[in-house]
Amino acid sequence: MSQWIYGRRVARNGHVSWARNYYSVPFEHIGSKVDLRITDRSLEVYRGDQRVTTHLLLPETAVNEYRTNDADLPAGDRYHPWDAARIRQWAERIGASTLVVINRIFESVAIDEQGLNPALAVLRLSRRYSAERVEAACRITLAGPVRSPRYAHVQPILATGQDQARPARTEPVEHGGYVRGASYYAGGTR
After folding, report:
1. Cβ within 8 Å of residue 60, ≥6 positions away
2. Grouped pLDDT means (10 residues each) for the chain, 190 residues
C-alpha cells in the first residue's frame, strides 16, 4: 500500500516538504514539480515516471527536520545554498534598514530555515520596486510598533507609495465649517 502526492515543487534549498519535514531531491530538479510516493517506511520522489531519490521516513513526531543525501547536493563553487548568511548579504546590499528587518525575522524563529522564506519574500520586493524604495519602506516599518516586520508589513507601504517623499503643501489649509467669531459669543444678544 502506498499514498501518492502529485505536483509538489522542489524548493530552492533542494528539498521537498512532506508531513512538516523536508527530504532532499537531486539539485537538477530544483524548481520543478515532482510526485511523492509514501509507504509506511519510505518516501520516493518521482519526476514523470522516473524515480529520482528515496528516503526513509522521519518519525511522525519529527517536525522541521531534514533528510539530505549528499549525492543530491551539487559539488563545486557553482553551488551557493540559500542560507541566512547569503540572505543577509543581499539585505546589506539593499540597505541598513532592510538588514535590520531581515535580522529580526531570523531572531523571531527557532531555526534559521524557518526564516528563509519570510526573509526572501521581503528581499524579492526589490525585483518589483527599486532598492531605495524597499529600504525606505523597511525604515518606515521599523519606526512602527511591529517587533518582527514581515512581507505583510513592508509590501503595503510600497503598494500605496507611502515610502515616496511627498511635497509639502505650500497653500494655506482652510478649516471647513461655520466659524463664529468672539464678537458673537461676547455680545449676549440673540
Report:
1. 19
2. 93 88 91 95 95 94 87 69 88 95 91 86 94 94 90 93 68 58 66
